[in-house]
Amino acid sequence: MLNSKERGVVLQMQSYSINDGAGVRTTIFLPGCPLRCKWCANPETWTTERKLVFYKHKCIGCGRCKNVCPNGLDPVHMKRPNEECETCGKCVQTCLNKSLDIVCTLKDAQEVVECVRKEEIFFRYTGGGITFSGGEPFVQSEFLRTLVNKFSILGIDMWIETCGYFEFDNVKDIISELSHVFLDLKHMDSDKHKEYTGVGNEKILENAKKINEMGIPITVRIPSIPGVNLTEENIRNTAKFMKENMKGATIELLPYHELGKAKYTSLGMEDKYNKFTTPTNEELEFAYNIFKEYEIIIEEYK
After folding, report:
1. Average pLDDT over residues 161-180
2. How many Cα atoms are found within 13 Å in the side-chain-facing hemisphere of 175?
3. Is the pTM of this model over 0.90?
């Protein structure tokens, strides 16, 4: 039987991505996250557990899903589908209009590698590669390590997107094989960071310093929300921290959006959804100008 090093949970493998690093890339989404950001657009990545998703707008009301459910459940009318459903997938297989789906599936490491190798030619011609994303990829560190080692042998370039909340010594060897790190700095005030994400920021800031000391290029990303972290005080504190502790790191602001709202509905998690304000171009420009004052280079991958 394969162990956790050889098998892991994959949410999605997104081919031909041009927004997650240099060149054309394949983004591998590994679910599981230690944070619960109130603005999160991907609640399906919070855990590694299989989940039933119901897209109400696609449903034609045929009733086939209820008829095949071994427990007699009606996916269309379940308020909390993932508290009742065993995710056997029979309803998904019988759905005529693809209004049902199962996300977070167990995969063999070699299966993931073979899927990526089909797109290797695009990496070679564009300077691309793989970007590991989440959730938080380091949650599945054993599986991630296996993937990184396999791709390293193949000479495939690897980047990662991380919230920075992990035990550094446990994954330092993984980080050493990466070409670039996207690191979220969501708020410089630890109390506010805990209020909005569920954890303080001390470990994240310490990990930011340690990654920088390894000499690996870092792009800091801020999910930017007016009144939360897109304030002059927080932006200046972030810029000052980067200037003093992250030599050469660049910055990218990711404006808050409401595209994740439909996911909360499809998962029966409407009560977990929080609405925030989308920043204006002027607010983003004001923030970028502060970073420029501190001689921090602006990056835009999105």
Report:
1. 98
2. 25
3. yes
